[in-house]
Specification:
alpha/beta; Rossmann fold; 5-stranded mixed beta barrel; globular
């Protein structure tokens, strides 16, 4: 049993990373293709390592200058518990506008592969969120930030859906009965982090926008594939974080 405590002062609190330049905005890039094949390898994308005032270099952090701002790009750890540690450290470092995106599993074979999914609500079937918010079945995403994402995707003619997602930290317990239940509950996709990240953002009162890209499909083979372009996904995320 988890007992929620609203006290923001824990025994161990996240500490600032003291990043040089004190960036205020960040992208959490869970998509391996975007990070490994584009951010790290593409020579036309000019980024530089993030460092702190003690001279430490953060290998999973890059700084990208976008419209005169330093945007921190981070390849976070996978899973609700690990990724929220990354998020807490970013917030403690003064970053208060964050966009996170990565892949998810579609719950409907009629949803084309690589469809963008904007979570309006995340079902809390993980553990982290219950340490940040009172018990409930779901956590919602900020409606204003949802509208910003929808406007950006519409402007660029991107195929997207808005709806409920299911967050679980038990990857190997996605059973047929669970799939049926979550579909009946209105869920479009399953992921491992969204409910946790949304809950931390609410608890810490920061602007957080998250979207997902349908990758694998646990309902069967999707009938269509829109294709994925890493450069486009990164530029969309940058446009969103600039607008919030």
């Amino acid at each position: 049993m988890i007992t929620f405590d609203s006290d923001k002062n824990a025994i161990f609190n996240p500490q600032s990373l003291n990043l040089i330049g004190h960036p205020k905005k960040a992208l959490m890039i869970f998509d391996d293709e975007v990070w490994e094949d584009y951010v790290e390898k593409n020579k036309t994308l000019e980024t530089f390592p993030a460092k702190n005032n003690s001279g430490r270099v953060f290998s999973a952090f890059r700084i990208y200058k976008h419209k005169g701002e330093d945007i921190l790009l981070i390849c976070p750890n996978i899973g609700g518990a690990a990724s929220t540690v990354d998020l807490e450290l970013l917030i403690a470092s003064g970053i208060n506008k964050i966009v996170a995106f990565g892949t998810c599993g579609s719950l409907d074979k009629n949803i084309a592969k690589n469809t963008i999914i904007i979570p309006t609500v995340a079902v809390r079937e993980e553990g982290v969120s219950y340490h940040y918010l009172p018990p409930s079945d779901e956590v919602d995403q900020n409606k204003t930030l949802i509208q910003i994402m929808e406007q950006v995707f519409s402007r660029h003619n991107m195929n997207y859906l808005s709806g409920k997602v299911w967050t679980t930290d038990a990857v190997y317990r996605e059973t047929s009965n669970k799939l049926k239940t979550m579909k009946q509950n209105g869920c479009l996709a399953v992921d491992m982090e969204m409910a946790s990240l949304l809950s931390v953002a609410k608890f810490r009162s920061i602007d957080f926008a998250g979207f997902l890209i349908a990758d694998d499909n646990i309902d069967g083979k999707p009938k269509k594939d829109y294709g994925r372009d890493s450069a486009t996904l990164l530029q969309l995320a940058l446009e969103i974080v600039t607008a919030i």
